[in-house]
Amino acid sequence: MPTFSDVTISVIVPVYKGGEAFRRCLKALAEAMPAADEVIVVADGGMDHTPYPALEKALDVKILETPVRGGPSRARNVGALAAKGEILFFVDADVTIQPDSIRKVKNIFCEEADLTAVFGSYDDAPAEPNFLSQYRNLLHHYVHQIGREDASTFWGACGAIRREVFVALDGFDEELYHRPCIEDIELGYRLKKAGYKIRLCKTLQIKHLKRWGVFSILKTDFFQRALPWTDLMLRDRQFINDLNVDISSRISVMLTFGIVAALLGAGWWPGFLIVAALCSLPLLRLNAPLYRFFQRKRGLWFALKTIPWHWLYFFYSGLAFAIGLTRYALSKPRMPNQEISRESEKDLTSISKIAKEVSVSPN
After folding, report:
1. What is the reported pTM?
2. C-alpha dist (Å) from residue 5 to 30, 36, 238, 241
3. CATH 3.30.420.40 fits 4-211+353-362, yes or no
4. Which of 98, 158, 218, 335 has fewest C-beta within 10 Å?
């Protein structure tokens, strides 16, 4: 059984146009007790896009620069190859860890010698005060807090993995996922398929600093999550009952489609409004624990406002699955990066192959 001092941690932060959130991320890393054994920042596309910010407290950082933007998958892989720690702790540039996060990761790997990877969740106090940011991050927090600790996937915003296993599996799939997508989920699928143990640690929490808006939510959830996740599930034949794809969510999707179909049909026959109401009641009941959670955290009015957004989430998630299933049945399914290129990342074709070597500059 390894001791606390035996476990070495390399924190890897991929960043592109980090700004103030990136500065706060590094500040939190500098204040961690104990500190990580090393912190590696990978500037995706070079420091011209993300200058290293001045910090109130010194932080010893190794800075790696990639010549062109290649996405978080490639940036994380570059950092992992340069890392010396036994454990790779991936942290996004728009989050802040807690002062004891490094300690928690070390303790987890000390206590569970057979554990390969662990990940956490967002906390219940999102940094941005606007409604959509509060809703989006509290929803993520809730889903992870009720998820199974024996996890079936991985999370790159706050996830740690044994370096030798990560290298053996060739890390994140940077050829398939050129931009922010489901590269962490895909890695988790490969880990489980290979028989490795992944744990969701509900006390390992980080604060998300991103401000969410209507466009960013729809773009992320539909094009960068739901569509490629559908392709992944169909490709690997893995329909797990956990997190965002549990049985409750699948039933909620069907009920939401029933409501939409009934409302459309009400134009021909008003009786369909009764059908919509009949679908709404079990949908409310099925998701009542979540809405009560929202009420406890932000009050009744906030909880009521989340309901249409939550039902919209079920609708476009189901729509993405239907699209993915249809194209899978008709032809060979597109790879996730192809869908992103066509729909939401049209500039992807302008990115050339990244050079194999990266430049290294000390802090």
Report:
1. 0.87
2. 19, 11, 38, 37
3. no
4. 218
42 contacts 79 by C-beta, under 8 angstroms: yes
Q: Where are the beta strands (DSSP E) in 112-221?
A: 115-122, 158-162, 197-208
The H or E element containing residue 294 is helix 288-298
- Does residue 272 or residue 245 have the better pLDDT? 272
Q: What is the pLDDT of residues 55-107, one digit of tens each?
A: 755 678 999 999 999 999 999 999 999 999 999 999 999 999 999 999 999 99
Q: 150: which residues sit within 8 A by CB, 6+ positions away? A: 197, 198, 199, 200
Other beta carbons within 10 angstroms of residue 38's beta carbon come to 17
> 10 Å Cβ neighbour count for 276?
17
- Give the DSSP letter of residue 348: G
Q: With b meaning 16 or more CB within 10 Å and e meaning fewer, what string describes 102-128?
A: bebbbebbbeeeebbbbbbbbbbebbb
User: Bridge partners of 148?
Assistant: none
In this structure, the chain runs to a length of 363
Instruction: Count other C-beta atoms under 10 Å from residue 192's C-beta.
Output: 21
Domain ranges of the chain: 4-211+353-362, 246-332
Write out pLDDT tens, residues 148-186.
999 989 999 999 999 999 999 999 999 999 888 999 999
Mean pLDDT of 218-244: 80
Calpha distance 119→172 (Å, rounded): 15
Q: What percent of the chain has pLDDT over 70?
A: 87
Query: What span, in angstroms and rounded, lies between the C-alpha atoms of 176 and 183?
Result: 8
Name the residue among 209, 205, 225 with its Cα closest to residue 217.
225
User: What's the CA gap between 64 and 13, in Å, rounded?
Assistant: 10
